[in-house]
Amino acid sequence: MRVAAIQMNSSADVESNLQLADRLLGEAAADGCTLAVLPENFALMPEKGRDKAKHAEQPGDGPIQGFLAGVALRHGIWIVAGSMPFKSPEPERVYGGCPVFDAKGMQQALYRKIHLFDVKLPDHEESYQESWSMYPGGNAVTVDTPAGRIGLTICYDLRFPELFRRLVDDDATIFTVPAAFTKVTGEAHWQVLLRARAVENLAYVIAPGQYGEHPDNRSTYGHSVIIDPWGRVLAEQAVGDCHVAAEIDPDMPVRLRSEFPALANRRM
Known about the structure:
- By secondary structure, the chain is of the alpha+beta class.
- It has one domain (2-259): Carbon-nitrogen hydrolase (Nitrilase/N-carbamoyl-D-aminoacid amidohydrolase).
- Helix content is 25%, strand content 27%.
- The protein is built from 5 helices and 17 strands.
- The strands form 4 sheets. Strands 1, 2, 3, 4, 5, 6 and 17 form a 7-stranded mixed beta sheet that branches. The chain has a 6-stranded mixed beta sheet with strand order 9-10-11-12-15-16, covered by helices on one side. A two-stranded antiparallel ribbon has the order 7-8.
- Helix 1 packs parallel to helix 2.
- The chain is globular.
- It starts with a strand and ends in a 9-residue tail after the last helix.
- The model has no long low-confidence stretch (mean pLDDT 96).
């Protein structure tokens, strides 16, 4: 089973971002990938966070979701669509939502980002207040795909291992972690956290990232990566618009959890 992480440098121009995503998803499909994961904010990296509200959609309705359904059907590939803006109870704030489309273009799941990035980076002048423009989700979500049961997460969720344990309790064997990790935190923590989530849960991790400079003056880290349940890096790309692909064995997490029963040995 071949899967892909799609790496992008998204801009404030939705149409150009969708054209790039279409090209990269097509390349992944031509490479034999059954499933591809887009990065966080694949459709829009705006100059100001609240600009996302102009493009927020209702679940199942809107041009970005229509694009995703059409591309999934045209390329015959499952798409875990990173994150895009969805309407929330407050007009000026949006959910960061990750919809999942099957190879027939049907939406199979929607996860709303739970943990919002409200931080000031130590020893740097950078600070972020995602809750100013975003509304938090409240539910863990899994979805069955040809590659296995996926536990859906987005970016900052990576730092909260209890969410990943909740997804494992729902039998997730793959985690998707679409991100726009800052360059500073990415250099320090990106891969070590991803490998930890893989190893401690004996699960695959597919983690596509944004890279480079963006309209809001954010520098993102890239280094899109696919990691196996033993913590081995199967494929990685530091920068560039590309797809990062690897073969995975959907039965490996189940087999490892039986042979190396760390999850069964949990004591609360």
